[in-house]
Structure formats: C-alpha cells, structure tokens
Amino acid sequence: MATLTVTVPEDSTQNIEGLVSINAPLEKVFEAHVNQDLFTKWFMRGNEVLVKYYDGKTGGSWHIAEKDPEGNEYDFCGSYHEVATNERIIWTFEFLGMPERGHVSIERMDFVKVDDSTTEIHYHSTFMSLKAAAVDIPMGGGKGGVAFDPRTVTDQELEEISRQYVRHLHPHIGPDQDVPAPDVNTNAQIIDWMVDEYEKLTGDTTKASFTGKSIANGGSLGREAATGRGGVVVLSELLRLHQDNRKIRYAIQGFGNVGLFFGTVVQAEHPDWVLVAASDSEATVHCDKGLDPTKLQAYKSARGRFKDYEDTDVNIISNDELLTLDVDVLVLAGFEETVTVDNVNTLRADYIVEMANGPVTNEAQEILAKDKTVVIPDIIANAGGVIVSYLEWLQNKDNTSWTELDVNARMATYLTKAIQDAYEYAKQYELTLNEAAFAIAITRLINIAEKNETV
Fold it and tell me: What is the C-alpha R_g of the chain?
C-alpha cells in the first residue's frame, strides 16, 4: 500500500512537492526505481511495455513505451543525473506526447526509512513550463545540470565536462525536440562547446540545438541584457495600466547581471527615475539624491564589494535595511525567499518586481496583498531571458540574424501582452497578479494538452 501527498505550485514558486509513503523496506523501494524489471512493473500500471533502452545508474538514461488496451502507444524517457543507493535519485522525465519543445521535468527523490517496513519518498519537481506558458511562447522550459563547482576545475576540465554532458544528453535534445539554454554558472563559451560536440555527434549544423551561444556562433543580440530589460518593460507597462505617472524612486536588491541591466535600461529609457539603493551579497550603497548604475558597475568591476564604496552623499547600509527603504519600487534580483513573514511588514514599497525566482514567499504574498502592495510575479517579470532564447531559436531555424532593436522590440511585445493579460485576469477574478499569472499559465498548458489529447 502507498499514500501520496502532493503540494501544487505556490504563488511564488514553480515547483511541485510530494511525499509518498510506501509499506515496504527502504532497499526494496529504492531498487524498484533503478531495476529495469521492477521499474516497468510499477511505472506502467500493468499495461504492455516495450523497453527501448534502460540504464538505471548515474549517467544512464531510459526510454520506455507503454501500450494501453486500445493499442495506443505512449513514449516516456529520461536520464539519471545522480543515483545514490538507498538515499536519493535525481532524474529527468519527459512524456514524448507533449506537443511543444522542452516539456521535461527534473525531479529529486529522497528516500527516507521510517521503520523496517515503511519508506517515504520526498520528491521535488521543477516545471519552468509555467514561465513559458505565462508569456505564451511555445517552449516547455525543462531544467537540468551537472552537480559540481565550476570554480574547482580547470578550463580544460570544464570543457570536457560540458562535452561529456552532451554525449549523454544528445539523444534527447535537438532543434525540434528539447533545446537547452544557459542558467547559473553557464556562459556562452560553455554553450559553444556543447554546440560543437552536438554537431560532431549528430551532423546537425543549424545551431538551433542550443540557445545562449556567442554571437559569432549563432547567438542572439540582446540576450545579455534580456532579463533585466524585460523587468523594466513589465514594470513600465504596469505603471501605465495603473495610470501611475510619478517620478519613480527605486531600489535594487541584488546588483548582479540582472540588477545591473535593470538599472542601466531604466537610466536610458526613464532618466527621471531615481535609483536610491543597490546591494551586493555583503552591503548596500544608499543615496537619496540618486546613484548612477553604470558608475556602480564600473566600481564593482575595478574594486569589488560595495562595503568599501566611498562617494559624496553615499551611505553604506545593511541589506536588511534596503528592504525597509521608503521607495516606490523594490526590485528583488537576488535570492529566493528574500521576503518572508518575518520581514514583510517592514517593507514600504508600493510595487515589488520579482526579478529573482521566488523571492517572496507564499505567506508573505498574502500579507502584501492585504496591504495592497503590488507584486509583479517572477514568471513574467524575469521571463525576458527565456523569450530571447526562443527568439534566438527562431533566428537559427530561419538562418537569419535580427538587429538588437528588433530583438528588444519582439521581446517587449511578448512581455507587454503577458502583463496586460495578467492585469485584466486579476481584475476580472479579483486575484493578485501572481495568482492571475499562474492561472493563465496552467490554463494554457491544460488547453494544449487537451487539444493534443495528452491528458
């Protein structure tokens, strides 16, 4: 016997959490997830099974087809990223019946021994498909990676790891299947190595197998600034919808790549807005008269940390103090769960822009909603990068290259419509923007699946 508890995505996350309790010893439960014969028995619910390949160890992959009583065949596949015996499994799962690219989930399962005859499986599944659906682009948004610290290896080792990753992954990716893009600790050079290896293995030279490439290797102009720029586009449109024409005073929590480009795009396109504070991981620079984002970045590149910053009228305050500043807009571009029930009542901003993933917890969202603080949800606010990935893919497929102005304009079109849709949906159903954005995204995914008879 087994019992299953599932927690569906919260407003501020793109995850599904689950707990399965099984009346069986830990060793047998774990074996059922890595042994081919056992796996196919429980996974396919007794239907006829065709095993195309199966290797249930770290670095292995699997592809299984199921035939139902009517003769319909359904294909499932994935890769084992980590198999730690009787402890955990990290794997990818893909249903090949989904119509769009990238409908892959990466799941982590932790196996816990309750007693000699009972085992619990705690699983955590991430679906970036919600972000793609929220901005209405036909990309699924799967996630994957290699678990290591790139700072501990040489450039030669990093290249070999990148190429080895593609050797394992290449049967499951391609221009019309699943298209990887860069994320944390990944850059254009790493993607270029991966593209080169993919081309050697498959002979496909369209460049559309990956996005985030260098410009010389088929990458898109506008990508580096896309996420930060996108946040400005979304905020600007929401202010227009609210008929809010004030001279905006704003603070940026997390002045990395995203925070920097948010600030420089504002500086260029809204020169009357005032940046009053910006933080790195250790300290915040604060100046009521206004800070220059370009000057801040030059300082960081040359000298490092904000804690040592010196300039007229500039104060160094703590990162906690930044959250409490009396500003119109608070840009959260740092980490998950920055705003919680413990500090939410100290915030004074009218608008919060979620440039990081899940920087405001679900409980804090509820409190902010009661206080009429507007939170622009991450699945729209920080979707500029995934949109430009899609635009890069389109350029590669057509063997063309657009200007940066053209890329920026196309990205802005998607984001403007996304925030307009969320705004109207929220008004119609009396929801927050977060709730509206997730409702729209989930509805779109369900409609796609029903249209293609995959649910």
Answer: 23
Tally of residues, the chain: 455
Distance CA 243, CA 282 (A): 36
Closest CA to 267 of 298, 290, 286: 290
CB 227 within 8 A of CB 355: yes
Q: Hey, what amino acid is at 411? A: M
Q: Smallest Cα–Cα separation from 269: which of 227, 222, 229, 221? A: 229
Question: What does the pLDDT look like over 126-160, one tens digit per residue?
Answer: 556 778 888 988 876 666 677 777 888 999 999 99
**Phi/psi zone of residue 215: left (φ > 0), alpha (ψ -120 to 50 degrees), beta?**
alpha
Active site residue 247: no
Q: What is the pLDDT of residue 452?
A: 58
Q: What is the pTM of this model?
A: 0.74
pLDDT higher than threshold 50 for residue 102: no
Where does 280-361 have alpha helices with state H? 293-303, 319-323
Q: Do 74 and 97 contact (CB within 8 A), yes or no? A: yes
DSSP of 60-81, one letter per residue? -EEEEEEE-TT--EEEEEEEEE
Contact 367, 341 (CB under 8 A): yes
Q: Which of 186, 158, 224, 198 is CA-nearest to residue 407?
A: 224
Q: Residue 270, class by beta-carbon neighbours within 10 Å (0-12 exposed, 13-18 middle, 19+ buried)? A: middle
Beta-strand pair 15-22/118-126: antiparallel
The one catalytic residue among 57, 143, 247, 427: 143
CA–CA distances in Å: residue 372 to residues 7, 88, 216, 348: 27, 42, 47, 11
Average pLDDT over residues 117-126: 70
pLDDT, tens only, 408-440: 999 999 999 999 999 999 999 999 999 999 889
- DSSP conformation letters of 427-439: HHHT--HHHHHHH
Distance between start and end Cα atoms, the chain: 26
The kind and range of the H/E element at 225 are none
